[in-house]
Amino acid sequence: MADPTYDLVVIGAGPGGYVAAIRAAQLGMTVGVVDSRERLGGTCLNIGCIPSKALLQSSHLYAETRHGLAAHGITAQGVTFDLAAMMARKDKVVDANTKGVAFLFKKHKIAHIRGTARIAAAGSVEVTDTAGAKQTVAATRILIATGSTPAGLPGIDFDEQRIVSSTGALTLASVPKRLVVIGAGYIGLELGSVWARLGAEVTVVEFQGRILPGVDTEVATLAQRLFVRQGLSFRLSTKVTSAKAGKTDVTLSLEPAAGGAAETVTADVVLVAVGRKPNTADLGLEALGVERDAKGFIVVNNAFATNVQGIYAIGDCVAGPMLAHKASEDGVACVETIAGRVGHVDYNTVPGVVYTWPEIAAVGRTEQSLKDEGIEYSVGKFPFTATPRARANGYTEGFVKILADKRTDRVLGVHIIGAEAGTLIHEAVLAMEFGGSAEDIARTCHAHPTLAEAMKEAALDAAGRVIHL
Residue 442: CB partners within 8 Å, gap ≥ 6? Predict the structure, then answer.
């Protein structure tokens, strides 16, 4: 039987790969997608974004029932939770989403080639299935979309039982009494929040002197205060030099980041959440001469093409925000360019969201980056405490901040901490995508009463004419 041949073979079925495959099929290409998992969707749908959000929602509802309903005159007594049922619901959500992608593959006649891929040569992908059998798949073009994996720390080995990555933190069989999270980024804070809500004593250890590096400083400061109120504790400017798992606990050695005396702490479970690294090993890239940078990211041009003709790369494999939606946009832009159309991603308008409570969302520049570059800017800010719908809902923590160019009024960045921040940010994304100004947002009619009115008021404040403050 002849080896199958495709116009495009995509390696990786995550949000970058499967979206690229669907768009390529829409553009008339024959497409095969190689992925080792039985279920499509990559890390995001299987062991990342989707299961974590399912647990965040379940744990939030539990915490809200226990602590938030009394203010509404609702009494709930003897509230408990069933962790096994929560996990079962999470798995059901994952199953539904991955089956949805499988349906789309059938709809668009995309082949799912299950196995581990190695690029034998430009135009040739060797696939090894779970039984060790090999087949060669021919392709006019190859798109690498293999995503990323959790980064570790030297001398600290994952066993996914006591020392866990984000993957293991989503499948704990019981609530740990003491959980230490190494890393105060979005993954550590989201998963730390889940287990803190369910009763764990959570300590977050961060090497830097603040949480959420890269996030607006004012937002991060308020977020830390709110997280402490929720029961999380923080050890900032602290490094973990070792973590040794025993039968019943983990012993960690901590030191001040600037140097000093070490101390020992113990925990039932340790979550290492210090970021992610590109999954570009074992693809045969060295033999092909595909260029990678010092951190392992594949080097591509504006069309996502590598230095080897016919081989492309997108998503977490290449430089830029390591976000699922960024990978999807990369995939669409890449295959549209291959098809002779114009594909483009504006990385200045890729939003980021931390799905804690309250949510944190941002797009564009921070104040610090503008100061560092000497760019003059205006600040418009409006608190949810002055937003009628936020008062009615009982979720008044947080604010909207808009940064606009001092000379042109063009929106340079927007930062939100508060309920539904991840939804609200998209008005700002659209405004920035069209080169909009703070004045454009300010003069746009916003329905009353809604949380989105805080965006309008912040835009008004940037011009010094806020109404409701």
Answer: 456, 459, 460, 462, 463
